[in-house]
């Protein structure tokens, strides 16, 4: 039977949650043995990512994808992290296609403050398609 990285992550997350801290190392050792026995050691990075998602969710931390038109000053990200105070984790990327501004996506919420979208909206308004 094949397991997805998400299934492995959930099983590990539940096992860790149900055991004492001093037993976590044994749980992790057994987990690695199960991965090896199933030939799934190559899935480790995907499992780790899925586990981290479960952990953030349990802690009430939202993942926020932030897209900038160019590399941003790390100080700005530090300020953003200070404002949200451990309630969100930012994943940033650069997309020169947005021209300027920023695009934020958290769960099903999308805030598009990109210059590209503003120009497209202006174009529609000028053509009377609003």
Describe the SSE topology:
Blueprint: H1 5-17, H2 24-37, H3 44-58, E1 62-68, H4 74-84, E2 88-94, E3 101-106, E4 109-114, H5 115-126
Parallel strand pairs: 1-2
Antiparallel strand pairs: 1-3, 3-4
Helix pairs in contact: 1-3
Question: How many domains, as an integer?
Answer: 2
- Structural class of the secondary elements? alpha+beta
Tell me the series of helices and strands, N- to C-terminal.
HHHEHEEEH
Indicate the percent of residues in helices: 40-55%
* Termini separation: 53 Å
Detail the poorly predicted runs. Answer: none
Shape by Cα distribution: elongated
* Radius of gyration from CA coordinates: 21 Å
Number of strand elements: 4
Number of helices: 5
Q: In this structure, how is the largest beta sheet organized? A: 4 strands, mixed
Q: Strand order, biggest sheet?
A: 2-1-3-4
> Mean pLDDT, as a whole number?
91
Proportion of strand residues: 15-25%
Question: Which tags fit this structure?
Answer:
130 residues, alpha+beta, 2 domains, 4-stranded mixed beta sheet
Describe this structure in words.
The protein has helices at about 5-15, 25-35, 45-60, 75-85, 115-125, and strands at about 60-70, 90-95, 100-105, 110-115. Helix 1 (about 5-15) packs across helix 3 (about 45-60). It has a four-stranded mixed β-sheet with strand order 2-1-3-4. By secondary structure, the protein is α+β, with helices and mostly antiparallel strands. It folds into two domains: about 5-60, no CATH class; about 60-125, no CATH class.
């Amino acid at each position: 039977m094949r397991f997805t990285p998400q299934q492995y992550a959930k099983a590990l997350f539940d096992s860790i949650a149900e055991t004492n801290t001093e037993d976590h190392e044994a749980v992790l050792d057994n987990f690695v043995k199960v991965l090896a026995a199933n030939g799934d050691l190559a899935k480790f990075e995907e499992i780790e990512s899925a586990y981290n998602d479960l952990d953030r969710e349990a802690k009430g931390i939202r993942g926020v994808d932030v897209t900038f038109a160019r590399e941003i000053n790390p100080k700005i990200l530090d300020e953003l992290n200070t404002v949200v105070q451990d309630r969100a984790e930012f994943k940033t990327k650069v997309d020169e296609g947005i021209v300027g501004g920023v695009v934020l996506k958290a769960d099903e919420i999308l805030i598009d403050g990109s210059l590209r979208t503003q120009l497209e909206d202006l174009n529609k308004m000028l053509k009377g398609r609003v």
